Amino acid sequence: MQTKHTKYSILDLAIVSKGRSLQDTFNDSLALAKAAEEVGYTRYWLAEHHNSDAIGSSATSILIGKIAEGTKRIRVGSGGIMLPNHSPLIIAEQFGTLGILYPHRIDLGLGRAPGTDRETAQAIRSDFYEAAMSFPDNVQQIQNYFSLDNLNEKVRATVAEGVDVPLYILGSSTDSAHLAAKKGLPYAFASHFATPQLQAALDIYRRDFQPSEALETPYTFAGVNIIVADSDEEAERMSTSLYKMIIGLLTGKRDFMQPPTEMTNELRTMKQHPSVQQMLKYTFVGNKDTVKQQVKAFIDETQVDELIAVTNIYDSKDRITSYRLFAEIMQELNK
User: Where in this chain does the record put each Luciferase-like domain (predicted)?
Assistant: First the structure.
């Protein structure tokens, strides 16, 4: 049974809808962040991806700055920065700068996946595999750069030292759970697309958690796909854009986010494919009452501290409406 207040936040990939420009998309993200701030969302995270027509969040730290500049209170950060793509020093400098510009509002979530295909990962960094294997050491390097203890080192991120930018470990497998537990950092699981190991990863993290300066007790996040509308039928119609995107991803036919259609028999059949079912296991679609029941069951099962809601649909106004309705759901569940 749910026994605690569950925070709710947003993960945004700056999804590019067909017929919309990247400028439109970035402005839509800012409009969503402003709306989210009004209805009690804790944080607004952007995820690093590359080489996709439909995803605009490739220069993640720059977009974080735009969102933070246009909002006042909501925390803004990365969900996440794919650390093997980058030098830890440069990431510390970027997020230290953000932390100075927007005090006590910036989050640095770190993951080890490339956020792209193999060829693009190689183009970003030729030694990506070796860098991925060094992920734990690179996380420690970033912690060092943010520490005042680094003042006397030869290599410093001077704009990061002593700046309040909390670190979060992101993951889609049990490997990341072990690392987050060992380091005593908050742990966010990407269950909005990587579903099989969610419960095992949460169990490992909670069992092996070691208190740290950052965190005394375990703190968990889980990603969920949320589409809420005034009726189940309208929500199902909006969800067709998400299912088309996932089917395209699985079949190698990437494209912009497509407009919604009626749920055809063909799409309904493809929706039942085991790969689609597994990827979108934690996808809650419907009116407020329908989604509220699904979300409550998920929270009761996982006991996560915070939900990261992902709403990938075509229309930006529908997306804001969905997030407003989800905020109402969470406020009702938290009473």
Answer: 19-299
User: Exposed/middle/buried for 259, CB within 10 Å: 0-12, 13-18, 19+?
Assistant: middle
Those residues with Cβ within 8 angstroms of residue 143's Cβ, 6 or more apart along the chain or in another chain: 167, 183
Query: What is the domain extent for residue 139?
Result: 7-227+281-333
Q: Check residue 126 and give its pLDDT.
A: 83
Q: Domains in the chain: how many in total?
A: 1
Whether 260 maps to a domain, the answer reads: no
Read out DSSP for 89-156? HHHHHHHHHHHHHSTT-EEEEEE-S-SS-HHHHHHH-TTHHHHHHTHHHHHHHHHHHHSGGGGGSSS-
**What's the pLDDT at 2?**
45
C-alpha to C-alpha distance for 329 and 42, rounded to whole angstroms: 15
Nearest to 15 by CA among 32, 36, 1: 32
Looking at residue 245, its pLDDT comes to 93
User: CA 209 → CA 6, 176, 183, 205, 278, distances in Å?
Assistant: 20, 12, 8, 6, 28
**DSSP output for 228-282:** E-SSHHHHHHHHHHHHHHHHHHHHT---SBPPP----HHHHHHHTSHHHHHHTTT
CA distance linking residue 20 with residue 315, whole number of Å: 10
CATH code of the domain covering residue 118: 3.20.20.30
Task: Check residue 3 and give its pLDDT.
Answer: 52
Structure tokens at 97: 């700068």
In a domain, 264, yes or no: no
Parts of the chain with a pLDDT under 70: 1-3
First and final C-alpha spacing in the chain: 14
| Other residues' Cβ atoms within 10 Å of the Cβ of residue 199 | 14
**Does 245 fall in a domain?**
no
295 inside domain: yes
Taking the C-alpha atoms of residue 156 and residue 39, their distance in angstroms, rounded to an integer, is: 39
By CB neighbour count within 10 A (0-12 exposed, 13-18 middle, 19+ buried), where does 141 fall? buried
Residue 14 is classified by DSSP as -
